[in-house]
Automatic annotation (TrEMBL):
GO cellular component term of the entry, any: protein-DNA complex
GO process terms (BP): regulation of DNA-templated transcription
Keyword Lipid metabolism carried by entry: no
Response regulatory domain segment(s): 3-116
Name this polypeptide is given: DNA-binding response regulator
SMART domains in the record: REC (SM00448), Trans_reg_C (SM00862)
PANTHER family to which the protein is assigned, alphabetical: REGULATOR OF RPOS, TWO-COMPONENT RESPONSE REGULATOR ORR33
Length: 226
């Protein structure tokens, strides 16, 4: 049985999420503050953590940052805040996904199942030779990215996104295609793709004047070119 930790200060929302998840077959536990949630995760680690952003004391952003220092557990933000800046900050803090309240339990459980499938894929990578794009090298088996021989620190989702683009080098993949192939979502917020592409660009490109490897094709999507 998969365990889910719900960090939410609104008693009504927290209880409704815990009960709904239990009805769907999950072992769910709630925490009213970031501090309580972090303590619970240290002592009884959950398979997935749901985090609200507007928490008393430590807010959701800092909660995710502190969690990420020691734990690679999938994190889903559930928040009433739908501004792009909040989504970007949450993802940069280390969240894997972002859902805007109110959230239908069917959508939430579909996202949780997709996160578990992605985690299994990372744990058991297929035998794929290293992929090279000039000074950029991607090693799917080792789970590593190197630029000019130096290791590039990427998140699990960034790595999966880069591998997907590399395996279809030169081909334009739409945002919806990437959501389906990387996040394993049938539909979803395309800003997830845009934020992760932007973060990847910062890590694998520089301002030396060399042509951009990760290209935006306006109106269509993204491609990685050699």
């Amino acid at each position: 049985m998969s365990a889910v930790l719900v960090i939410e200060d609104d008693d009504r929302i927290r209880l409704s999420l815990v009960l709904a998840l239990e009805d769907e077959g999950y072992a769910a536990v709630g925490a009213a503050t970031a501090e309580e949630g972090l303590s619970v995760q240290r002592t009884r680690p959950a398979d997935t953590v749901l985090v609200d952003l507007m928490l008393p004391g430590l807010d959701g952003f800092e909660c995710i940052r502190q969690l990420r220092r020691t734990d690679d557990v999938p994190v889903v933000v559930i928040s009433a805040r739908d501004d792009t800046a909040d989504i970007v900050e949450a993802l940069e803090a280390g969240a894997d996904d972002y859902l805007v309240k109110p959230v239908a339990i069917q959508e939430l459980t579909a996202r949780l199942r997709a996160l578990r499938r992605r985690a299994r894929t990372v744990a058991d990578p297929q035998e794929v030779p290293a992929l090279r794009f000039g000074e950029l090298e991607i090693s799917p088996e080792a789970g590593e990215v190197r630029l000019r021989g130096a290791t590039v620190a990427v998140t699990r989702t960034e790595f999966q996104l880069l591998c997907e683009l590399a395996e279809h080098a030169g081909r334009v993949l739409s945002r919806q295609q990437l959501l389906q192939r990387v996040w394993q979502y049938d539909g979803g917020d395309e800003r997830l793709v845009d934020v992760h592409v932007g973060r990847l660009r910062q890590k694998i490109e520089d301002d030396s004047g060399t042509p951009r490897r990760l290209v935006t094709v306006r109106g269509l999507g993204y491609k990685l070119q050699r």
